[in-house]
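Why do we care about 3D structure at all? Because function follows from shape, and shape follows, mostly, from sequence. That is the central idea of this module. The next example makes it concrete: a single protein chain, its amino acid sequence, and then its structure expressed as tokens.
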Amino acid sequence: MPELPEVEVVRRGLAEHVVGRTIESVTVKHPRSVRRHVPGGDDLSAQLSGLRVESAQRRGKFLWLTFDDPGTSLVVHLGMSGQMLVQPGDAPLEKHAHIVATLDTGAQLRFVDQRTFGGWALYPLVEVDGTEVPLAVAHIARDPLDPRFDADAVVRVLRAKQTDIKRVLLDQTVVSGIGNIYADEALWRARIHGERLAAKLTRPALHGLLGGVRTVMSEALSAGGTSFDALYVNVNGQSGYFERSLAAYGREDEPCRRCGAPIRREKFMNRSSYSCPRCQPRPRP
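And the structure:
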């Protein structure tokens, strides 16, 4: 699933190619892609048609567009395979293009989603902590790349959690944008095993961990994100290449880039965790 760097890459593409454009029409080709918009596809099409896109915004993994109709936002759920592609109007339609918005330039913004876990939905904007966000995003915490991210406040929350640190890192109500990939990468950089209790870690260790999250996400963003297959692309259909720089995630039995020990893979929440057995020793029972 796309994490913060991948979603930010998409957001930047939308800011460049879609912001300032007017949506002339919207065609919904698959009802699952608008299932979160309760009034249905026809209503979504009618409400979006004629609106001018004012901004492309993001918090953590959540992405939305705002318009010249104050208080209205379009939340884009990328899900497992969602893509926001900007294509010429006469370009062949992708097999899994489930929503097509025609812009006043003649180009089209296409939502392509092979697995149909994602979709579009309209939500009112509400103010949370001095920032306007869609109602569906109101419970999501600020992410480490947010200028108003308060690391001290997050560390206080982390130190009150009697649970595994990796589990807390994935809690989007504590700190947003972190998924399985970047949690493993940040934990590797901080030399912390994901099963360590958050409450047992020192403040300096937690600040170092959050700093590692910020650093690895910034590096991934510079590389266009992490693309393991053709599903993770920017608005031009291009893949990111941060996979080449991963130190832990997906590198089972490969040598640790720091000490040479073979990276181990462990089960975690129906997924996998990757860590170095030497640099990141398991906590004692």
